[in-house]
Each structure stands twice: as C-alpha cells, then as structure tokens.
Amino acid sequence: DQQVKQNSPSLSVQEGRISILNCDYTNSMFDYFLWYKKYPAEGPTFLISISSIKDKNEDGRFTVFLNKSAKHLSLHIVPSQPGDSAVYFCAARMYSGGGADGLTFGKGTHLIIQP
Amino acid sequence: EPEVTQTPSHQVTQMGQEVILRCVPISNHLYFYWYRQILGQKVEFLVSFYNNEISEKSEIFDDQFSVERPDGSNFTLKIRSTKLEDSAMYFCASSGEGRKTQYFGPGTRLTVL
Q1: Overall average pLDDT of the B63-86 stretch
Q2: Is residue A98 pLDDT above 70, yes or no?
C-alpha cells in the first residue's frame, strides 16, 4: 500500500545545475506535504513543506511545487551543491482533527551531486 | 537551535528482552511521534501522542509496544519482548502548536540478536 511514491531510487546531477525530485500520492485526503533530507546514520532533517491549498512554496534554493489534480509534487534545488548529496524523502500528512497526525513517507530518492 | 535528542544511539539486545528507547522532544512541543526504518525500507509511522495519550497508531504498533511520557521532558518507547524483526532505526519526532512540521531526532539503532 504505497500511498506516497518516489519512483526514482536515485538521481545524479551536476553541481550548479537544477535537481528535480518527484513524488506522487494516491490519497486525496492528504492536506500537507513535506520534504526531508537524510544523511546515513542521521535522522530526517526538515527541508520545506507545502499546504494543499497552495501550489508553490519557496525557501532559498529550495522550491516545492504541488499539482493537486495530478496528485504530484516536486522539489527543485537550484543551484545544486555537493552538500545536497543525500536521500530525500517526500512525506504527507492527513489531518485527522484529533491529536497528532502521523506522516506517510515515500521510499526516498538518493540524490548524488557530481562535481 | 532546539533539537530532538535520543538515547542510546545504538542498543543491542537478545530476542525476548525488553528495551526502552528514550527521547527528549523540543521543549515547547506538544505532539510526539515514533517512527521506524528497517534497513533498506521506508520510514514507517508507529504512534503519535498528545495530551498524555495515544492519538493514532499504526498496525505495526501492537501490544508489544507502549509509549509513555514519564515526566515533563522525556518520551519513551518500550518494546516488551523483542523479536528479530524489530531490528531497525527508531526515530522520535515532535511538533509544535500548529502540528504541521515534525522535527526528527538522530535515531536509535536497535539490533535484536
């Protein structure tokens, strides 16, 4: 049951170019989406998020785009830097109205920035 | 910058033993979570906790698991009788008032022999 899918296990991009990481979801009840970056033996680090009522959110080099009709989001990193090499996870939240809401994660995309 | 901390970083235990994984969430956060990541697989939600009770739990979180906030700062995950398949990285997370962004700790690697 893959409600959040990241179909590219890995992506190689040259330093200075744009990195585009993709994520698809199936559950239309998701209302909030997040991107996390993870290095080996560390916890996921929050990067950027977007509410389902928006279609774009930008923070420095990172921009997330949301296409609700296609149930697709993407993370753009411009320009890509060597320190961006990591595994990137897409995650989604379904607001329950009650207490805390667990996130559903994709399998991740390993981004490799080539010098 | 405030961060979530977890102890120990690595725990090795024998099958059938009880383990307690500890977390200190960000101090003014109200919502707490446990996740796990089995090697090579995706991060999976286990349980969320708010106002001293479980808000939501996944099907992974069976009777072998329990959570507790024993004082104003710690948040623990107990596995009563560990199995080989419990070997994984366990991540604690917390979120603040808007409960949108969850901040993760560095994880505890649990190895069950």
Answers
A1: 94
A2: no
Binding-site residues on chain B for chain A (CB distance < 8 A): 4, 6, 31-33, 35, 41-51, 53, 55-56, 58, 91, 95, 99-107, 109
Contact B104 A99 (CB under 8 A): no
From residue A87, give the alpha-carbon distance in Å to each of A13, A40, A68, B27, B32.
Answer: 13, 8, 24, 28, 24
The number of beta carbons lying within 10 Å of the beta carbon of residue B44 is 20
Of A41, A44, A98, the CB nearest to B43: A44
The SS3 of residue A38 is: strand
Average pLDDT over residues B64-71: 93
- Mean pLDDT rounded to a whole number for chain B: 93
